[in-house]
Model the fold of this input.
Amino acid sequence: MPFPLTSGDPSSLGLDKQSLDRLCETITRHLTEGRYPGAQIAVARRGKLALVQTFGDAQLEPGRVAARDETLWLLYSNTKVITACAVWLLMERGALRFTDRVAEHLPGFEQNAKADITIVQLLTHQGGFPNADVPKEAWEDHDLLRRAVCGFTLEWSPGSRVHYHGRAAHWTAAAMIEAITKTDYRAFIRDNISEPLGLGRELFVGLPDAEHGRAIDMHEPSADGSRQVKRAEENVPEFRRAGTPGGGGYATARAMAAFYQMVLGGGTLNGTRLLSPRTIEFVTRNFTGDRVDGYMGMPMHRGLGPHVRGTTETIRGLGAIATRSAMSARWHFTPGTGCRFSAESAYFPSRCRRSAPPISPLIPVTSTERGAMAGCDYVIAV
Done:
């Protein structure tokens, strides 16, 4: 199946080619400086790819292996939006309502005073159990997964705070998806999102063993900062196979650009309708207003999966100059511009350097509409 986005000339798409060139030059300089081993970027607008480029290495040990356009990159929290999309689909198909309580669809979740947590609260990081997690054995034993999720305990009253749930919320969503569909959540995502969109070879939640050779190795600085070392957890077959729903997906940058072009297209990509415009409009609303996320230390304007830029001074992942309607899962897609930017690197996100000078926007806009792509430090280090 051909890729769902064709290539287009940046100028014809209203993009600033000089800014694109400067972005590529910045990444090349970062590689020379040893900031990260490799990276891949994609820029899409109006249903076309303006840029796809791969840099550096996919592996450093035992020998260097160059990254390719087919290389698969660890999505970390960008996986959350894919998992959330599966919930969106179930809503459209009448299997649930966003205002439903999770326990209505996941029997047993009502344990430990969790009976009244709604799906909206779950997906907007208001559930009240941000530090909960499941044992690694639950990665493949999904009966254990369900028991572990149902046994989560509250740290505060649901809905009373916004606080990033790094793993817990989307493990819960995965268990709920399985309870409703009677299908492994990874298979549901593959059969109902990746494959219908034409991304079956480039977007995975749960990486098949046959594709492990395409996966990037993730690195972080050594203790003395002199070199890059492989991270222990993410570079093993068990993790890649698991497809943890809050941070274990793999994809190419262009696949994620295509996914968000579907969102920008009101639920349709290259003639394939996955979701309705009404659903897209609803899930990309700002459900948490300007309430400060207790983990992030700033408002995150959470939707039911992505978050929106809003009007606060800054926001993690969207910086200070993105338009108020721009949305992110640390990547960028901006309603009204039709533009989507994806960047992936072989670098652990919590150790990113943020000292590089910003890159001017790719879309020529007025000073009050500065948006879409800016700040090479955060768009590269995802």
Notes: The longest strand covers residues 48-59.
